[in-house]
Hints:
Number of domains: 1
Strand order of the largest sheet: 3-2-1-4-5-6-7
Helix content: 40-55%
Oligomer: single chain
Number of strands: 7
Largest sheet: 7 strands, parallel
CATH topology: Rossmann fold
Distance between the termini: 46 Å
Radius of gyration: 18 Å
Order of helices and strands: HEHEHEHEHHEHEHHE
Amino acid sequence: MTNLEITNLFSVKGKTVLITGGSRGIGLMMASTFVKNGAKVYISSRSAEVCEAVEAELSKLGECIAIPADLSTTEGQQELVAAINAKEDSIDVLINNAGANWSAPFSEYPEKGYDKVMDINMKPIFFLTQAFLPLLEKAGSIETPARVINIGSIDGLRVSQIDNSAYGMSKAAVHHLTKILAIKFAGKGITVNAIAPGPFPSKMTKTMLENIQPMVEKANPMKRIGRAGDMGGIAVFLSSEAGSFLNGAVIPVDGGMHLMSAM
């Protein structure tokens, strides 16, 4: 019988977690929360300098290991897979968070922008999940599944007024891939869910928030943008015993903004 005490129901202590794009923004919010709550956390991002600085900072709070890799390339993905396989026999939680955006009017949208968005937002989720499937299967069971958490966006749930058509399309694809894998993996003892964040402070949203944060907050039903605890909390929930029967869900974490007129 499940231990229904809160400290056990929402615990991630002792879990091994890999977060791509874990050195900045939403990825860092999640990594910090897992580390502070007793998980062993691997973070990966393209910048070795930033990755290692975050490792040094978070290691003061718990266990954090940086593995820099450029996940927009097949070689970078393979390097990350090899490094994790050399260190771990299994992983409990894979969070596919690495992402990129490119804004331009549709009539002028360049192929290099389209390729960048697709190569970072879609391909690594597909192929890293494929590559880490054996480690996830070793960690999971029907009673206590391993978890895959894909980071989508509310722009994959609605049509944004911002000129980022390839980004919205890529995130809608992330949401649908989540549902496909949820069905395929459930019998293997692995659940797959997606988080669809609204505006949070990050490198990707920095320029937008510098220019129109008051407008963005006004458009949100809760009159604010996301905070670290909002993202860390939902990631921990999905990774804990409390979230073990949730599968194939796309969860907006945006204060209800996806229900309003696009912003």
